[in-house]
Amino acid sequence: LYLLFLAVGQINNFEVWESFFSNAPPEHYRAFIHCKEQSCKDKVAGSPLVVVPTVPTKYCKDLVTAQQQLIHYALRDTNGGVNPSDKFAFVSDSTLPAKPFSTVYSTLIGREGSDFCISPTFQWKVGFEPWTRVIKHGQWIVLARAHAEQADRKWSKVDAAQYKKIDNCLDEFWYAFILFGPVFAPRRGHLRQQALDHFTGGPLVTSPSAGLQGQCDTFTLRPMDRDSSFGH
Predict the structure, then answer these.
(1) DSSP structural state of residue 78
(2) What's the distance, CA 64 to chain centroid?
(3) pTM for the whole thing?
(4) What span, in angstroms and rounded, lies between the C-alpha atoms of 58 and 117?
(5) In what order do the strands lie in the sheet with 49-51?
(6) What are the Cα distances from residue 10, in Å, to 15, 65, 72, 202?
(7) Which of 125, 159, 169, 181 lies at a CB distance of 3.0 to 4.6 Å from 134, suitable for a disulfide?
(8) DSSP helix/strand/coil, 178
(9) How many separate helices (H) and strands (E) can be counted in the chain?
């Protein structure tokens, strides 16, 4: 299990994470962190977290560059070995582990596919063609190894500027777009379902009334965000 932290100046409640890692078998996890500020790097020194080189980021514009930096270094980790069941989970600097490591590990590793928290269809963006849509999803996704490797290959070969049609919060669209591609636009009166490769909680429903979909264990929904159709 690869835990990929995105942080600014520190990890909040870092002592809780230190306790979490103290009960984790070292051979079962690796943890990497992208720090925006030097103070963050100083505070995690000597901990299980491996700091990756800092790259430019901008909140709600482009955090994907930092996410891809984490994936790039995690995939090239020589200590963890390579296993098709590996998972790569993005974690924020304000996240708290609500379950012990054993539960987190067994839940994520024991599930096939990648976990996306898909937003209601009315929040999806128009694709490069007017009859397509780019799926919107939560930033805190969990990628299967095959998807992490695919994202790494595609990021290294393309200029992210071509995705700037998504003019804000690229991290909420990019991974679904490059892994699953655009989907047909929802049509009123049509209940369309689309099977996506290694998508947990599928098939994807693209009707105009579709609410939250997919699977996500790495954040908590507020009561106002909950939807009866969402498996959580």
Answers:
(1) S
(2) 10
(3) 0.89
(4) 22
(5) 49-51, 30-35, 2-7, 87-92, 142-144
(6) 12, 19, 22, 36
(7) 125
(8) helix
(9) 6, 12
210 touches 190 (CB < 8 A): no
Q: Residues of the chain with pLDDT > 90: what percent?
A: 55
Q: Each residue of 160-200: pLDDT tens digit?
A: 555 555 666 888 998 999 999 888 887 765 668 888 999 99
Tokens representing residue 161 in the block:
């500027």
Tokens of 26: 């070292």
Q: How many residues does the chain have?
A: 232
Buried b (16+ CB within 10 A) or exposed e, 123-153: ebbebeeeeebbbbbbbbbbbbbebbbbbbe
Helix, strand, coil % in the chain, rounded to nearest 5: 30, 20, 50
Distance between the two ends of the chain, CA-based, in angstroms? Answer: 20
